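User: hey, got a sec? need Oxidase FUB9 folded
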Amino acid sequence: MSNLEVLSIAELEAAAMEKMDKMTREYYNSGSDREITLRDNLAAFDRYRLRPRVLKDVSRIDTSTQLWGKKISFPLCIAPAAMAKLAHPSGEVGISRAAANAGVAVGLSSFSTSSMEDVVAQGAGAIDYAIQLYVFQNRKTSEVLVRRAERAGFKAVFLTVDTPYLGRRINEVRNRFKLPPHLQLLNFENPGDVAVYSENETKAHGGDKGKPPAAGAGVDSILPQGNVNDASLNWETDIQWLRSITKLEIWVKGILTAEDTLLAVQHGVDGIIISNHGGRQLDGVTSTLDALPECVAAAAGRIPVHIDGGIRRGTDIFKALALGADCCWVGRIPLWGLAYDGQAGVELALKLLYEEFKLCMSLAGCKSVKEISRDHLIRVKTDGTLARL
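Assistant: Yep! Here you go:
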């Protein structure tokens, strides 16, 4: 395909949808329940307009910023997203190669269909990686995963805290989502240890509520509903537990309130990611962009604040930074790039976002990321009028 057919992320998404089967398409793109939060993640960015400054010297634009002590080409990185080989055989390895070529960091899902060692090898020291972590009921499974990531050279753990139970993802249930037999979850010695089963399926096969049945019990679904994560996870004990098993930076992913931001600071985490799991958990929560300002205010510069959810354009990145985010993460977009054209499709996606962001900076009168501020935004009120922040 000619790249003239894909000149925006919206066009990339449309092209990718044609190449995915229904089960994969709805697994990647759906949200929970009525998908209110899924839609609002997108709509939130349109509730802001840009306030450009003119007669600024923008003959040279520096889009770069710092993450984990290393320069990244622009303030956008690849968020953890499960089972990338559903989109393309190169999977997470293809995403990693594209990220390395673009000079941005990668977050790898625990439920990766490529091994963490193979993924990190693609960066060859040029970029950094974080491992996304669920704390399973079997804590040893999580501990082994973290220690393996540390040996592989990862920089951080993204502790995912918004999934004590899985959200009600209706399309996954209806489609009986499952990983095809030719694919495996390669970050676990025994993938059956992390399979998630509904309560009815578990009881039908003789298991206890909330615990998976024995391997080979005949359950064909990996992530429909139910629970395998440790629902007892809490601030008081588990940040300290994680700190006791690793020297990696500990970031908390899934924060939406000032109160939890303050607790993150209090418990000494290294950073937070404002996230609602792409609208796949509790439906009806605030969009991540709407949650961002109160979390930035609570953090007060003591820890970095990153954001994911709803980012589709370079102007979205600009708006998030103007509201105080230090960096943005995208999860679905790399999957669409993979489905469209493998590694080359991911590179195209990152190029589109980079060029849009750079153009937005120049037209807004910002020659460096540090110059982006709240003064560059105005909010659209419910009656359609505009209000200064």
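Quick note: The first strand starts at residue 48 and ends at 50. Let me know if you need anything else on Oxidase FUB9.
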